[in-house]
Each structure stands twice: as C-alpha cells, then as structure tokens.
Amino acid sequence: MDGRVVGLRALGAMRRLLPPLRRWLGAGRPGHPWTVRGEFCLRLPPWFAPPLRPTPGERGKHPQPNIPTFGFLFDIDGVLVRGKTPIPAAKKAFQKLVNSQGQFLVPVVFVTNAGNCLRQKKADQLSHILGVPISQDQVVMSHSPLRMFKCYHDKCVLVSGQGPLLDIAKYLGFCQPITIDILRETYPFLDMVDHDRRPKVLHLPAMELPKIEAVVLFGEPVRWETNLQLMIDVLLTGGWPGKPHHQASYPHIPVLACNMDLMWMAEAQSPRFGHGTFMVCLENIYKKITGKELKYEALMGKPSELTYHYAEYLIRMQAAQRHWKKPIQTLYAIGDNLMTDIYGANLYNRYLEEKNSRKGSKGRIQAKVAAGTRSATISQDDEIDHTWQNELAPPTATSCRSVLVCTGVYNPHTEVPSDTRESITETVFHGHRDFRFDPALVEPDHIVPDVDAAVDLIYQLENFAPDQDTSTF
Questions:
Q1: For the residues of 422-439, what is the DSSP string, one character each?
Q2: Nearest to residue 48, comparing CAs of 15, 24, 3?
Q3: What is the pTM of this model?
Q4: Element (H, E) at 227
Q5: What's the CA gap between 162 and 359, in Å, rounded?
Q6: Reduced to 3 states, what is the DSSP secondary structure of residue 405?
Q7: Are 159 and 216 in contact (CB under 8 A)?
Q8: Residue pair 97/104 in contact by the 8 Å Cβ criterion
Q9: Which of 470, 359, 461 lies closest to 69 in space, CA to CA?
Q10: 20 to 30 Å CA-CA from 388: which of 226, 237, 286, 340?
C-alpha cells in the first residue's frame, strides 16, 4: 500500500482520537496543567495534525490574546503625586500597564479636578512623572466638560482661577472670556481691600466692558479677596460691575463651577484648601449680603456624573483606536478622596445600573449631580449639539467600581458616621453644599494601600495577565 495513503489514514484516526483525548486530559478546566486561560494547549507538530477546516462561524476570525474589557480612571493628586513629588508606588504601577513599546495594555484615563492648565501640559507632566507616554486624549481636567456647553461659548464670560486662563477658555470654545485681572484693570476702584493696591486717583474707565453674561470658575484663584469682591459685583449688577448693586438682580446671571474639592493633598502633612473652600466663601458672602442662595447652572469635575460620562467616552475611544473589539464593560476609578473620587464613581455606577435597567428609554446627561435638593439636568437635545450627543450618549460600561488608596486625603483611622443626621456638618461632610450625604456613596468597593496595590488587585479581579511584549493586539 502506498505509504502516503497509510499516513493519511493514520492522521484521520488520530484526529478522531483527539476529542476523547482532550476529555481525558481535562482540557478546558481552569488551572489544569494542559490549559491556559481555559484553552486546551497540547501542542502537536504540523505534520502530525493538519489544521481542521473552520466552521462557518469561525471563518474570518483570527485568534486574539487577552483583550481587556475594563478600563482605569486614575485620580492624580494623592494617588500618583503629592504636590510635585511622585508617590513611589505610581511608577511601579505604570510599569505593569504598558508593554515594552510603551503602549497601554488597558485603556487608561486620568481624571483630575485640577483646572489650572491645558490638557497637553498635564499630559506632559504625567509622562515625565510616570515614565510612560501620555497623550492629552487620556486626560480629563475639571473644566473639560465645558466644551459641551456651546450655548455659552459666544457669550462674554468672566473666568476665574490660575494659569493661562484665556488660553484655557478659548481652547474650551469660549470666544469672549474676561479675566478678573482685566476686570480689575478696567474698574480699579472696585478692588479696595489691599491698601497698597488701592488706586491713588479715581477716574472713569477708559472703556466699558460688554455685559458679562456668565461666571465660570475654573479653580481656586490667588487673591481671594479680589476675586470674591469682583464676582459679587458682577452678580449683584446683572453683569455690569461698574454700576451700583441692585438687589432685584435675582436670579443672578449663570454660574458654572469646576472642581468642588474642599481640600486636596500636597507635600504638607495635612490637606490644603481647594476650590471647594473658595466656593463656600462665595456662597456664604452672597447669601449674607442678599439673603438668597447662590445658584449654579452647572457643577462639574468629580463627583459630577458628566465628568465620568466624558471619561468613559475617552476610554471607549482608546479601545477603538487599538481595534479592541470587545466592549469596555467595567471601569475602575482609583482615588484618595471619599467625597470626590469614591462618591463620584459610586454615583456614576448608580447611573449605569439605572440606565441598564431602563434600556430603550432616552436618558439625560446630568451636568449637576441630582444628589441633593438643587438638582439640574441638561437635555442632550437642547444644550449639547448632535455630534456630542452621538459621542457621549451610549456608554458601553455596565459598572464603575471605586478603589480607595491611603496615600492622600483619606485617613484610614477616621470613620464616616452612618447616621446622616450627625453628618450634615462641615466638620464631617466635606462634599459640596448641593450634594446630599449618602453613606452608600462614600463606601468604596475596595481599599488598598497605594496605586500599585490597586493595579494588582484589578488585574486579579479581571483575571488579566497580558503579554508585556505584545505591541499590537
């Protein structure tokens, strides 16, 4: 008999024996010595078992390694750095998140409440600190969602904060921004607290500014007394700060605020004042003068749902750019602050759960978290143009898990009271005035010592062990 015929018959017999052989070896059982991630991995030489003909459902498919179905949302201050000093665990953690070519193995977005610079500068800072390439498309600043508030972009707005304010405002889309410094130079007699800065000669302004139609708070300013005084002037005059106050100017012109952090962690041993502290001052001064509440058109930055919605959109964009076909289903938000990072992640998780439970109904993006009595929503049809609606409306994530690290604001030796009646005090409840204290929202899903332990934990939870040398999936 022809030796080739004998060989073919032998191969056919062996192929018929493979299924029972696989069952005998226990292929497919997790942890079996002949399995890898549940797949049978007994290797046979090419001449021994030629490839089987693919089934119709398998045609056109190529084997893919462990593709992530989860993404990371990293806070920065207190998690990766303290002030300008890197936290030692951060660099170690990010060595586990990139391959040898510097590509991220999992989608990563940095969600910070900082608002004193452009996204590109923050990305450059992170690249230097972490030793891995970070792009601006991986960064969400507290003011990033303002790009969607197009109804204010053509208006004259007063902007407050630090850094290149005009550059930031124009990058976000504002065409007519005015800074506190410009306002003070135009009306120098409005700033009278500092005796050394008081004008020696009072004169009428050389030019009149256009009516200010909104106030935008990017972050904490430097001279609080100047900023507080001039903002009150703008609010009490309906946008004409050179004119007398009018108590009838209520409701006041819109106020949009970014970054509600009461405190943040720098190099000092105790937390420092954040923009939330400045907002407390502004709110209470306004109420003391007028007897009325200062109202916000929108609050953004963590813990606002809109900020997490925007971050989830960037996660999806990263996965699409890497041609990862599986949807990102789980987000892991890693932070150090119970009232921003943990509260926000848990609140967004509630939103995702409610969205999945009411599939088919048209949702609304929240610009101001509906966690208190002063809730406000922005209709996707009315305020966000069609392009942004298409980009942000359909999140693929089904859950957002909160991970608390102990390297920043959080003190593991301080307990949060479960009785909310005892917690609505500024000494305990550090969230913004417009948020209701809810013990469930400040309870993290996981508590770990630092960000390196957080990455290890998440890889373990996801059973994710990527090939560090794989450059493309």
A1: GT-STTT--S-TTS---G
A2: 15
A3: 0.74
A4: helix 224-236
A5: 42
A6: strand
A7: yes
A8: yes
A9: 461
A10: 340
Burial 36-58 (b: 16+ CB within 10 A, else e): eeeebeeeeeeeeeeeeeeeeee
CA 62 to chain centre: 34
Tell whether the model's pLDDT for residue 435 goes beyond 90.
no
Sign for the pseudo-dihedral over CA of 246, 298, 428, 83 = negative
Rounded Cα distance between 261 and 292, Å, is 23
The length of the chain is 473
Q: Is the peptide bond before 466 cis (omega within 30 degrees of 0)?
A: no
Tokens of 402: 């909160």
How far, in Å, CA of 241 to CA of 250, rounded? 15
Cis peptide upstream of residue 251 (ω within 30 degrees of 0): yes
Q: Tell me the C-alpha distance between 142 and 113, whole Å.
A: 4
Nearest to 277 by CA among 144, 430, 60, 424: 430
**Average pLDDT rounded to a whole number, residues 250-264:** 92
* Sequence-separated (6 or more) residues with CB below 8 Å from residue 196: none
Strands 399-405 and 446-448, bridge-based pairing: parallel
DSSP H/E element including 276: helix 275-290
Find how far residue 219's CA is from the centre of its chain. 16
Task: Indicate if the pLDDT at residue 30 is higher than 50.
Answer: no
- Give the containing element (helix H, strand E) for 347: helix 343-357
Confidence of residue 250 (pLDDT cuts 50, 70, 90): confident
Instruction: Give the 3-state secondary structure of residue 316.
Output: helix
CA end-to-end distance (rounded Å), the chain = 47
Record the tokens describing residue 87, joined without a space: 């936290």
Mention every residue, 6+ apart, whose C-beta is less than 8 A from residue 101: 471
